Amino acid sequence: MAYLAEYIWIDGVQPTPGLRSKTKVMKEGDELPIWGFDGSSTEQAPGDKSDCVLKPAFSCPDPIRGGDNVLVMCEVTYNDMKPHETNTRAACEKTAKKYAKHESWFGLEQEYTLLDPSGWPYGFPEGGFPAPQGPYYCGVGADKIFGRPLVEKHLELCLQAGLEISGINGEVMPGQWEFQVGPLATPAVGDHLYIARWLLQRLGEDFGIVVSFDAKPIKGDWNGAGCHTNFSTAAMRRDGGYAVIEKACKALGTKIDAHVKGYGAGIEDRLTGKHETAPYNKFSYGVSNRGASVRIPWQVPIEGKGYLEDRRPNANMDPYTVTRLLVDTICAATPV
Length: 336
Ligand code: ADP
Ligand code: MN
Ligand code: MN
Ligand code: MN
Known about the structure:
The chain has helices spanning about 90-100, 150-160, 190-205, 235, 240-255, 255-260, 265-270, 300-305, 320-335, and strands at about 5-10, 20-25, 35-40, 50-60, 70-75, 105-115, 165-170, 175-185, 210, 225-230, 285, 295, 310. It is α+β, with helices and mostly antiparallel strands. It starts with a strand and ends with a helix.
């Protein structure tokens, strides 16, 4: 019996690359081979040298097609198999290997916004605005929650695919939602997040709903969309870990620009200091503080160990880049 492999990759569209995919018919028992695509159609190559290579990096069951079919997250390479300039996974894997002894874990809180086909948020009246935000976060009821059938179906599909999804919730703006992936090491957490993003957008096709990872989909007094990144090392998770977490926060405070630049396009518009954010150009951290750049959950000082939450990454961030930056900065400054 033949089976189908959906090869998924990240394109070169700037400043916010998107996902692309195409289907390969496989013979029973065949291993996933490298494959190619037209890079001139994805802003990854000029027309006269258009061939780019897809190198399978991670695969899981395809919960949409079912059966033996699979989804395949790929790295993009040049013809000599060197990483393409848009391939952020290769550098992430290299850094992760360098600091493997730290045993870093990540939990990503992916926020997103559902839009109707005209581009206006699901739950917003046509051409107008709903009542101010307040009752929508984790709400219930047809006046507060919009798009739940799609969100529920997405959770079910992620579980069927074997992704490490850890929860979902309705967010602060109507039509805005969140799912969490992790805890997982990197680049695995990035692989799982990208497949989960692809499934969400793919499902949106069936529902006639557009999924946006825009960091500030509606200007004005409405929450932006982020991807809070929870992080720990083995030393943080053991007794005495609180001191290691504080050390990590201090290290982050010395590299503000490098991190913010890699945390997603348009971050200045989202990290304004309002709507549970800290200004993008200042660094702060604090226990339970949702107005700080980095929040230390309330259990950490009580238990003396745990993890930290970098609240700065945008919803449109690249998880390979964000996790690479965190491992690089924090593991260099903290003990194994
Ligand atoms: P919030 O209260 O900020 O909304 P969430 O419950 O949405 O938090 O997300 C927390 C995320 O942190 C989850 O994905 C969870 O798996 C992850 N997490 C929990 N413990 C750790 C840890 N020790 N290291 C890294 N991530 C963790
Ligand atoms: Mn959350
Ligand atoms: Mn959230
Ligand atoms: Mn959070």
